[in-house]
Structure formats: structure tokens, C-alpha cells
């Protein structure tokens, strides 16, 4: 958390402590990240959301948030429910990637949101290539054996389909050591994506104004999945960020922040 952030700490239903923060003043927006991130990774996007209170949190097993043995997607949805219930209302929500799927889970369980923004929620049924059922367990086994470097490499190569030569470059970067510390969460995000129960009837009940975004440089299957989600939400706009891929919060936070702000101010 930055020095101006106000600490937020809640306890989830299974006793896991979830730690987050509030930064800024104004209407509230909660950010839900996807794989291999922690709260500081939002900094560049947060700078493009002026005049708002931005709420962030670390998902279980990352940052100061604690964890427990095993994994179930429902536990992470419980975490998000606990965090958002501690925040002032009304509340906007922005979800990225598998974090967008967690947001949809929470909405299906009754979380009240004023406006919803989702960036590239992955739809497993159109994903190419498919995520294998045994991949999370293989990652967990490597972590249990203390082979965190190999676990992170497996997630990157088979969960994110990062080429081997790029993995070698990432190993030399500043975030690899950090991400090794929570490599098991790669298995969490694969599980979230693989098991998300796409249900048009459930999505049709989410009537708040929504904006779904994707980058025109993202894989075709990702773009197609976002369009399918947008068609299923009854009050949804669809937007495309030119020149962007899956991580516009890093590559062009000003462009992304501008689109998000314009939608929230409508």
C-alpha cells in the first residue's frame, strides 16, 4: 500500500484475513485483479482515476492477506463479498481477467454494484488452447515440493501460454522473485477460469450498467469471449482499446482510465 492509503482489513467466512486499502476521495470503485498481481500493480491505473476513492485488496495468499490449505473458488468469492460489504455504498467495480469472473460470481450472489466494468473476462469454452483439468494440481504439487520457480514457469507456459524464450526473459525481471512467492495462486486463477459456470439466465439478472472492454491485440478467442459476455448482459456497452492486449492497465493506463472514467461519469 502507498503511504497515503487507508488500511482495510476484513475476515472472510473461513477465517482468512483479507487486507486492502482505500486511496483518494470521492465516489468509490473497487478493483479486482487477475493472475500474478498484488495491490501495487494497480498504481498506474489508479493515477488515471482522479476524484474517486479507489479500493484495492490482495486476494488470499498474496501480500498481507493470509491463506489456508486447499482451494475452492467459493472461498475467493466469500473474500470479495467480505471486502465489498465493508465499503461505503454505492460502489462501482472494475474486474480484470479472472478477477472479472470473481466479480461476476459475487454479483450472482447478491453484491450490489452501481456500475460494472470488466476487462477481458476469459471464457473457457472458447479458449484456445484449452486449459487442462490437471494443470492446477501440477502447479500445487510443485509448490508443495518447494519448486516455486518451476511452478511459476508451468503457469506462465501452460496457463498463460507465454513462449519459453519470453519466460527466460521474465526470469531476469524484477517481478519473477515476487511472483514465485505466490506461485500457487496461478492454480487458483486457472481453476476460476476453467470452472466459471457461464449461464445466460444468471447474467440476464445483472441489470446494472456494464462496460466490457477488450484490446484489439488480444487473441481472437479472448475477443470473442468478451463479446459473448457482453451479449448476455442486458444493459451492457462493448468497447475496444486500440493497440492494446490483455494488460492495458500496464501498457496504456491513460487510455484505459479514460474509458473507465467516461463510463462511470455517464
Q: In angstroms, what separates the terminal alpha carbons? A: 30 Å
Element pattern in H and E: EEEHEHEHEHHHHHHEHEHH
Radius of gyration: 17 Å
Tell me which CATH architecture of the largest domain applies here.
3-Layer(aba) Sandwich
The percentage of residues in β strands lies in 15-25%
- Helix fraction, binned, reads 40-55%
What structural class should be given to the helix and strand makeup?
A: alpha/beta
The oligomeric state is single chain
In the predicted model, the low-confidence regions spanning at least 5 consecutive residues are none
The top-level CATH class of the largest domain is Alpha Beta
| Number of helical segments with 4 or more residues | 12
Q: At the fourth CATH level, what is the homologous superfamily of the largest domain?
A: Alpha/Beta hydrolase fold, catalytic domain
CATH topology of the largest domain: Rossmann fold
Main sheet characteristics: 8 strands, mixed
Arrangement of strands in the largest sheet: 1-2-4-3-5-6-7-8
The averaged pLDDT comes out at 97
Shape: globular
In total, the number of strands is: 8
Describe, in plain words, how this protein is organized in 3D.
- With 266 residues, this protein is an alpha/beta fold.
- It has 2 domains: 6-123 and 196-264, Alpha/Beta hydrolase fold, catalytic domain (Rossmann fold, 3-Layer(aba) Sandwich); 135-189, no CATH class.
- Helix content is 41%, strand content 17%.
- The protein has 12 helices and 8 strands.
- The chain has helices spanning 43-46, 73-85, 98-108, 135-144, 148-159, 164-171, 176-180, 185-195, 200-204, 220-232, 248-251, 253-264; strands at residues 6-11, 17-23, 28-32, 53-57, 91-96, 116-119, 210-215, 236-241.
- The protein has an 8-stranded mixed sheet, sandwiched between helices.
- Strand 5 (91-96), helix 3 (98-108) and strand 6 form a beta-alpha-beta unit.
- Helix 2 (73-85) crosses helix 3, helix 3 (98-108) packs across helix 8 (185-195) and helix 4 (135-144) packs antiparallel against helix 5.
- The model has no long low-confidence stretch (mean pLDDT 97).
Amino acid at each position: 500500500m502507498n503511504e497515503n492509503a487507508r488500511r482495510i482489513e476484513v475476515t472472510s467466512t473461513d477465517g482468512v484475513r483479507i487486507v486492502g486499502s482505500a486511496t483518494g476521495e470521492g465516489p468509490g470503485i473497487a478493483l479486482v485483479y487477475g493472475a500474478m498481481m498484488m495491490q501495487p500493480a494497480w498504481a498506474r491505473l489508479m493515477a488515471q482515476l482522479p476524484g474517486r476513492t479507489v479500493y484495492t485488496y490482495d486476494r488470499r495468499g498474496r501480500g498481507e492477506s493470509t491463506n489456508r490449505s486447499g482451494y475452492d473458488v467459493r472461498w475467493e468469492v466469500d473474500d470479495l463479498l467480505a471486502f465489498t460489504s465493508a465499503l461505503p455504498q454505492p460502489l462501482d467495480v472494475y474486474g480484470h481477467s479472472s478477477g472479472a469472473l470473481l466479480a461476476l460470481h459475487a454479483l450472482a450472489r447478491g453484491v450490489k454494484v452501481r456500475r460494472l466494468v470488466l476487462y477481458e473476462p476469459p471464457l473457457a469454452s472458447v479458449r484456445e488452447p484449452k486449459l487442462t483439468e490437471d494443470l492446477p494440481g501440477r502447479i500445487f504439487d510443485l509448490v508443495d515440493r518447494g519448486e516455486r520457480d518451476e511452478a511459476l514457469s508451468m503457469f506462465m507456459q501452460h496457463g498463460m501460454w507465454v513462449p519459453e524464450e519470453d519466460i527466460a526473459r521474465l526470469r531476469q525481471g524484477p517481478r519473477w522473485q515476487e511472483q514465485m512467492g505466490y506461485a500457487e495462486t496461478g492454480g487458483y486463477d486457472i481453476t476460476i477460469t476453467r470452472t466459471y459456470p457461464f449461464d445466460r439466465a444468471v447474467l440476464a439478472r445483472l441489470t446494472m450498467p456494464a462496460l466490457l472492454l477488450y484490446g484489439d491485440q488480444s487473441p481472437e478467442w479472448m475477443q470473442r469471449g468478451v463479446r459473448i459476455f457482453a451479449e448476455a448482459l442486458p444493459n451492457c456497452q462493448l468497447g475496444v482499446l486500440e493497440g492494446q492486449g490483455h494488460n492495458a492497465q500496464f501498457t496504456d493506463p491513460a487510455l484505459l482510465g479514460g474509458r473507465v472514467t467516461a463510463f462511470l461519469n455517464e
